[in-house]
Specification:
Blueprint lengths: L3 E6 L6 E7 L9 E17 L2 E2 L2 E2 L3 E13 L11 H15 L2 E3 L7
Parallel strand pairs: 3-7
Antiparallel strand pairs: 1-6, 2-3, 3-6, 4-5
């Protein structure tokens, strides 16, 4: 998925399921179609703590809601950028995979 960007945020509630035509770059001739997808069930929770010399916080967790932004220079004949059913399956799988994980910065000092 080289043309995808995921973004995690605990406050975003943006939902847009229509392809939006963007103005092309001066170096490119085809328009860029962009879509942002966010659903209530695209979410996960995870725990972490921050530690560095002289400071260490307690283990705590956050709830995240995930959105997906896709872009392309082409859309299909039916006017869609992507099959939403496929995207929902992948996003739900990935959110389930990350739920209840623990994240630790690799260079953390204890």
């Amino acid at each position: 998925m080289s043309d995808t960007t995921t973004m995690a945020t605990s406050t975003a509630q943006f939902i847009n399921t229509t392809a939006k035509k963007e103005t092309p770059n001066t170096n490119q001739t085809a328009p860029i179609y962009k879509i942002r997808i966010m659903k209530e069930d695209f979410k996960f929770n995870a725990a972490h703590f921050v530690a560095y010399e002289g400071f260490r916080e307690k283990l705590h967790g956050h709830n995240y809601q995930v959105g997906l932004q896709l872009w392309s220079r082409q859309i299909s004949n039916d006017g869609y950028l992507v099959d939403f059913g496929d995207i929902k399956k992948v996003m739900r799988y990935e959110c389930k995979r990350y739920t209840k994980d623990f994240y630790l910065h690799l260079k953390a000092t204890f």
